[in-house]
Amino acid sequence: MKRTTSALALLAASILGLTACGSGNDPLASETPAATTSGGSGEPIVVGGANFSESTLLAEIYAGALRAKGLDATTKPNIGSREIYLRALEDNSVQVFPEYTGALALFYDKSYTGTDPEEVYAHVQDIVPDTLTVLDKSVAEDNDSIVVTKQTATEKGLTTIEDLAPVAGDLTLAAPPEFKERPQGIPGLEKTYGVTFGSFRPLNPQGVVQALKNGQVDAANIFSTDPSIAENEFVQLEDTKKLFGSQNIVPLVRADRADEVRDALNAVSAKLTTESIAQMLKQTDIDKKDPKAVAQEFLSANGLG
Amino acid sequence: MTWLADNWRTVLDLALSHLYLAGIPLVVGLLVSLPLGWAAKRWSRSYPALITTTGLLYTIPSLALFVLMPGVLGTKILDPVNVVVAMTVYTVALLVRTVADGLRAVPDHIEQAATAMGYRGLRRLLGVELPLAVPVIAAGLRVAAVSNVSIVSVASLLGVSQLGDLLVDGYNRVIWGELVTGILACVTLALLLDLVIVTGSRVLTPWLRVQGGRA
Amino acid sequence: MIPSLVSWFTDPANWSGEDGIPNRLLEHVAYTAEAILVAAVVAIPLGLWVGHTGRARWLVSLANSARAVPTLGLLFVVSLWLGPRITGDLAFVVPSIIVLALLAVPPLLAGTYAGVQAVDPAARDAAKGVGMTPLQVLRQVEVPNALPLLFSGVRSAVLQVVATASVAAVISLGGLGRYLIDGIALGDYPRAAAGAVLVAVLAVLLDGVFALVQRRVVSPGLAPGGRGVSGRGKDSRSVEVEADSPSTPVRAPA
Predict the structure, then answer these.
(1) Could you give the ipTM of this predicted complex?
(2) Which of the listed residues A48, A200, B176, C90 has the most CB atoms within 10 Å of its CB?
(3) Is there a single domain that holds both residue A154 and residue A270?
(4) Average pLDDT of chain B?
(5) Interior CA angle at C251 toward C250 and C254, to 5°?
(6) pTM as predicted
(7) A219 lies in which domain range?
(8) Which of residues 154-173 of C touch B (CB under 8 A)?
(9) Total number of domains in chain C
C-alpha cells in the first residue's frame, strides 16, 4: 500500500510541476500578449482555416484573391479550435482567418446577446483585441440551426423551433459539446423558446450529421450552409425569435497587415452569398472536389482572380 | 484507391512531415533516456520513483500536452516544435524504463568479468553494459516508434500538418479513400521505422546472430 | 491555474449528477473493463496457442504493428461504418468499445505469447517427461510460468485503454474524456485540466490494483522482488527474453 501512496504523491507532484511551469499561464485563455514581431508589407501571408470544410474553402478563396493581387499568400487549414487559431493570429503565425461575426462576438464577450447583423458586426469591431481587425462583413451567413429529418417534421408537424416546445421532452438532440452550455445553445433554447430536449448527445460536426441520418437522434444542431441538409432532405426549423443571432462571414486579419489585404478581401466579401457558399460546399463535400479548385472557379467567375 | 492516385504527392509531403515529427523525438528521447535509465539502475532506490514519474507522463492526454506546450516553452501555438517536444516527453516516458530494465538485466558475472578486465565507469557502461542492453532498448524503441506515429496524428488539431490531416478531412467530407489512405500511410511509416530499428539493433549486436539468437 | 483547478474540484456541483465526477469515473472504469474483457477473450487464448505451439508468430508481429493505427482514424472509420448498422444509444458506445478493445489486443497478445515463450524449456520437458498431456503442460506449467509477463501485458493494456477512452468522447462516449473534450470545446481550461488529472489518477490507481493482484496470483518463485518482468533475472538468456517483453506501456493519442 505504501508504494501506491508514494506513487500518488509523485503523480500529484509531477502534474503540479508540469502545470506550474506555465505559472498562471492559462493556455486556453485569449489574453496572450500581442506578438512583438510586426509584419511589414511584402512578407508572406498565411491564411488559416479551422477544421471544417467551409473554413478550408474560405481560406482557399481568400488566399487565391490575395495571390491575384500579387501577394505571397499560402493557407494553413485544419486548425482545431477557435482558442487555438485566435492565439495563432495574435502570435503572428497566421495573418488572415475566415470568421463569423456572432461566434467572434461571443468569444470575446461571453455574455453578449445581440442578434441584429449590423449590431453584432459593430460590437465585434469594438471588442476584438487591438492587434486584430475585422474587414467588411459579407451577406453570406452560416448560422447555427436546428434540423430534423423530413419524417420527424411531418409526423410532429414541425416547421419552426417554437413547434418543438410541446414534443421536445421525448426527443434527443445531437450537437457539438459546446452547444450544451453556450448562452445561445441549450440554455437559449429553453429561455427563448421554452424548448427542453429529453436528452443531449455531444458529437463532432460530422458525427452530428451521421447520428441524425442514422436515426440515432431526433434533432441536430447543424450549420445552415452544410450541404448534408439538402443531401439528406433534412428540414431546417425556422429560428423565428432570432435566438442564433447573426453569423456573417467576415475576414479577421492582423491589424498590422490590414492595409495590404483590405481591398482584395473586401472584394471577396462583396461577392460571397449564402447560396454561393452552399453551392460550393456541395461540390467539396458531396462531389468530393478539391476545395482549392472550387475556390479558384469562384474567383474566376467573379473576376477576383 | 483512385483517391491515392490523384493525391499521392500530398500524401508523400504529409508522410515526410509525419516522419520528422515522430522520428526526431525518438532520437532525442533515446539520448535523454540513456542517462536517466542508467541513473535508475545505478541508484536502485531511485528506480521506482523514476519509473513511476515517467510512467505518469504517459497518462497525460496528448491533446492536453500539445495545448500546454506553448505555455511551458514560450513558443508560438502553431510551432511544430510543440509537437516535437511533447512527443519527446512521451518517448522518454517509455524508454527510461526500458533502458533501466535493459541495463539491470546485464548478468552480474559479465559486469564482474568486465571490471576484472579493467573496464570501469563510463567505459564499462559504453563498452559492455550498453551493447548488451541493445536488444531490450531496441524493443522499447520499437514500441515508442509505433506509438509516436500514432500519437502524432492528433497534432492536426493544432494546425501542424502531417498524415492526421487526411483523417480529419476524410472524416469531415466522408471520403473513404482519404481516410483509409491516412490510416495505411501511418501503418506503413511505422513499419518502416520499425525495420530501421530492427536492422540497427542487428548491426549493433553481431554476437546474437552468431548464436542464432533473435534481436 | 492551480487555484482554479482546486476550486473546480471543490465545487459540489462537479460531484453529482450525470456530469459529476463519481458518475464519469464509474463510466470510465466500466468502458475500460468491457474493452479489456473483450480483448482478453480474444488475445489471451490466441497468445497461449501461439506461445505453446510456436505457430503463427507473425500474428504477434502483426498485432504489434497494428499499434501504429492512429486511434482517431480508427474511431472515425468504425463509427462511420458501424453507425448506420446500430440503433439507439448503443450506436455511441459499441464503436468506441470495439476500438478500445482493438487497442488492448496487441499488449495482451504480446504479453501472453512472450510469457509462454519464456518458460524454461527444461520445465516444459520435465512436465512432458512425467507424462502430462499437452493441455496439462499448458495449464499447470506454461500458464503459471507465463503469469508475470502476462500481467505486465494486462497492465499495459489497462493503461492504454484508460488513456485512450478519453479520445472516444469525440464520438460521444461518456467517461472522464467528457471533461477534457467539453472543456476544450468551451474554452473552460480548469475543466479540461481536471479531466487530465482524473485520467492520470485513475490510471495509477488501476495499475496499483493490478500490481497487488499480480503479487497475489504469481508464484513467489517467479516474481523476484514482486515486480514481475523487471526483476533481476541474472542469466544471459534473460536479455533475450526481455527483448520481447511488453513491459513498456503503449498508449495511443488521447
Answers:
(1) 0.79
(2) A48
(3) no
(4) 86
(5) 175
(6) 0.81
(7) 144-237
(8) 159, 162-163, 166-167
(9) 1
